[in-house]
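ok here's the first one, seq then struct tokens
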Amino acid sequence: MITDMFSNAERAQVLTEALPYIKRYNGKIVVIKYGGNAMIDETLKEQVMEDIALLWLVGVKVVLIHGGGPEISDLMKKLGKEAVFVDGLRVTDKETVDIVQMVLAGKVNKSLVTLLQMKGGHSVGLSGMDGGMIEAKVKDERLGFVGEITKIRTRPVTDLLEKNYIPVISTVASDHCGNTYNINGDTAAARIAGALEAERLIMMTDVPGILKDRNDPNSLIPEITVSQAHELYESGVISGGMIPKVDCCIEAIREGVKNVTIMDGRVPHSILMELLTDEGSGTMVTK
């Protein structure tokens, strides 16, 4: 016989302690960037969708923005096409951008929408191309159809939020000539969150957050300001792949987001820990 870890009284206490946070975020927009390695484990993916559905059920206006780099690479490999990266960005020729659109706007987007529906959340899948939501131009000729965002239109998102749906957005974009572009998911999340003037932006990644010592997961810095972030750049604490992530955090805050959290998306229920508990999860970047 399996004994429950928590008594009914303890469960009730947990819910009571979450109440102030539920009141705080009720009716507020929270943008969640979900992608990379946090999407690979199917059990973990279900838990993330459960967390998002729960937030939606208690009145949080969740916007889910997703990537899918590993799945793009897997399909390219099956098609005999080698993935090439320059400065951490995928070189995207015409054939590759078709694969990106197929995977992100098709397979990944619709699987997340279906999972959310199964967990009790009402969701609708969009790509950045729908309603001209994300308009882009060529970022760097060396990268092919990798886009630099030139305009965000929030109407497709706000219309869904007003009708009480969870928008699930894949980060492909277009231009006036009908070209399709692959957009970095963190950049798209920052720009969309800023345009929506979101209360929070949560960026789920595969590290605990900003670490004083990158080799010591216990050296997590729980909170920094924008000015402190610049100091950490100079000291080398923020380096490598964390630099563009923190850049996106700073851009989102400058665009009007209240605060941004970088967290480990592989930790079960990390979203709920961040939003509905005193403890939090990851590193919060504030103005």
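and now the second one, same deal
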Amino acid sequence: MTASHRARLAIFSTVFMDLLGFGIVIPILPLYAKDIAAHPSPWMSHVNHLLGLGAAGTSPGAFWAGVAFLAYSLMQFIATPLLGRLSDLTGRKPVLWTSLMGTVVGYTMMALTSRFEWVLVARILDGITGGNISVAQAAMADSSRPEERSKVMGMIGAAFGLGFVAGPTLAGVLSGSALGHRLLAEHGWHLPFLVAAGLSLAASLLVIFWMPETLTPEVRKRAKHEDSRGHALVEAWKRPGMPQVMSISLLAMAGFAMMEGTFSLLANARFQFGQREVGYLFAYIGILIVLYQGGLVRMVAKRMPERAALWAGLLLMALSLPLLPVLGWKWPFLLILIPMAWGSGMNTTATSALASQLTPAEAQGSLFGAMNAMTGIGRILGPIGGAFIFARWGGHATYVAAAGVMVVALLVASTLPRTEHA
């Protein structure tokens, strides 16, 4: 096995294990935060009163679930470009390990608390060190040629999808298990978050003992001499074509995060699904992502330029999102999730490939840090905006608004310049 193939396999494995923990958390965090917020602290009650939440027909728990997502995303927006730039200077391996250890501490704190304030502290810590995906993307770019970028970025997407298959399924099993109920009743411990912490710890050990450093000393030397006086986000914005690509990343993530942050609440409101059933639904979405990123992405990359794949992905999401709150269970609802999941995969992979082609090798870490900062803004605006709309006007308004954001992203995509490989 060549060094580049070993690096890709190691990165895939570490991303999968980390995203397995992430997949455990995502479907249950909104319901978990909602339950905690049902017994608000005095300051939370004051905020509820100011925002008009808590009256008949409103759901303050949905808003506080959005705040839990916001805390992570805000810190990730600030820190991820800096971590990306740091990985250009010191290498991918140490930065990836550090970010994973921050995730371990954050999940452990969430597992041991029943107070919303500590949930916020945990999400803030995890957000500060949550640059692992951008560093993994940069490491994948290090070990590939420009024309291979869609394919290798698809490996990151496949790892993400596999995590979303196994993670939510595991979340449903753990939250409904006898051990999970006993730990919660006797100690106030949340078993799914403890397992997520353990998985991230295992991923950090995999980085130490298996993953080779993908950034060569020569590239690191060039990175140290590169003029980088500004924040990595500002530097990336100056590159031709990058303002459009980064804006699309922000908008697409904001629209998708409006769905992601309220999907558990929608399923609970429409079908009375609990943590177990919601976990299985997220696992189904993960299977769809794996089918695309693990196989279909290669067919799309061969037959469709990145620009066209980006447009197609945004259009699929714009058309499918407004149907989620109105289609009935079972098959209509499950079928409409297919274009939504595949559209997200097409957009994400094509956007990453386009951005990587527009950026030199010594700035790939900064690039993906900046890109993930933009998606971080989307993860700030999307969940909190979606949760507030859901709390005030319900699921249908939320998903129509998410589709509208995708339409704006399509308009920005129409202004993209052409590249050599797109």
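notes on #2: Residues 3-37 form the longest helix (35 residues). Residues 3-413 form a domain with the Growth Hormone; Chain: A; fold (CATH 1.20.1250.20).
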